[in-house]
Amino acid sequence: MKGIKWALLGLMGLGIILLAWSFIPGVWHRLFTYPRYEKEVVELAKLRREPSSQIDLTTYQGAMHVHSYLSHDSRGTLVDLVSAAKKSGIDFIFLTDHPRGDIDTLPKGFRGFHDGILIEPGTEKQGFCAWPLGAAIIDWRLQKDSIAKQVVSHGGLLYYAHSEEPHHWNNPDFQGMEIYNFHTDTKDQSPFPILFDALVNGNKYRQWVLRQFFDSQTPIMQHWDELNSHRKIVGFAAIDAHENQNLRARYLPDGRIQWVGNNAKNIDTMEVKFWNKWLFSEPDQSGWVFKFLVDTYESGFKYITNYVMADTLSTASIGKNIKQGHLFIAFKSLGDAKGFQFYGLDKKGHVSAILGDSIRLDQVKSLYSVSPLPGRFKLIHNGKVIKMSQEKVYEFSANESLEKGNYRIEVELNLQGKFIPWIYTNPMVLF
Ligand SMILES: [Zn+2]
């Protein structure tokens, strides 16, 4: 008996040590790493120079691939979406709510301007994302390829979601693909160390906790370049925001408390008693009386942002310019990329094409790119880096004899003692 008792005590002790051990990295990050990262980003922002615009379009910022409570795995409300967009400088949200049944009727949910934020409803099912940009009925029992044709022939937007998964990549109806998806990025590592980090730093340094998931999506980028060698596929960023990696509680109409856990699943319902009452505060705008949040719309919208160059902030103009590829993506929590430009100049020095355009080779004499923050520019031709700025610069050009093919730019920021990816543009095609 004595032996068992000591073994149990030993196991308990080991458990306590392991638990304490799991929190050490988070405490270290809180005291040293994250304050340093935060300071670096603040210092970098002070170096901001507003480039004069050479492009006749306005840059709007958008969150694409976002879920609201209309999806089974989210509880996000209009208030949550709009307030997060305003806090993170987002102009438009393109929703992708999962259908609840076989028939999807669009527009569903929110549409148009809400407190200045443009919202467009869309749908996502099995790696297939669409914004019909108008009235549509999608019958998910049909073949995917015929759904694709239907969406595109009515002027809608259609793209491959979750590019790490198998798709019918040769279907010519698809106009774009995710070149970065936050959810995809989280799949290659264990979430547990990050969860412990979130328990320590979730409120104060949520952006840095989420950045722990970041890896360059090299195979996806290579695949994107490869696809673009024979067809146009616009690249954009999906935050895949659900605001659902959280523990929350709210009152039910009968006065009991309902607990909602990961993926917006109900986990328990309980009576409010004197012993648990202290946990609950006044309900917030969405009714929550208890919140432990790992991901939020705000953190997602700042994590990765789509910058679309368009005539006006309207569904028609944003949709048209997304299709065209007048779009670059940037990790906004590292620095706001508004003002960045990538274009081609003709012999007379006039802008003849911008990112996403296709243009005859003889109409582009040089390529030019400018950034509001100093970074390391990389010029990529048909998937290969052909030129790189030596150090941190604001401007970058390529005057060498240009060839046919796709040219795109990546910009890296010098943070955390190394260059880390910040901006990815869509390619300009010279033919
Ligand atoms: Zn999704």
Question: How does this model look, in words?
Answer:
- By secondary structure, the protein is α+β, with helices and mostly antiparallel strands.
- The protein starts with a helix and ends with a strand.
- It is built from nine helices and 26 strands.
- It has helices at about 1-45, 80-85, 145-155, 180-185, 190-200, 205-210, 220-230, 295-305, 315-325; strands spanning about 60-65, 90-95, 105, 110-115, 115-120, 125, 130, 135-140, 155-160, 175-180, 235-240, 245-250, 255-260, 265-270, 290-295, 305-310, 325-330, 340-345, 350-355, 360, 365-380, 385-390, 395-400, 405-415, 420-425, 430.
- Among the domains are: about 245-295, no CATH class; about 340-430, Immunoglobulin-like, CATH 2.60.40.
- The strands form four sheets. It has a 15-stranded mixed beta sheet that branches.
- It is globular and about 85 Å long.
- The mean pLDDT is about 95.
- Helices cover about 25% and strands about 35% of the residues.
- The protein binds zinc ion.
- Zinc ion binds near residues 65, 67, 96, 124 and 240.
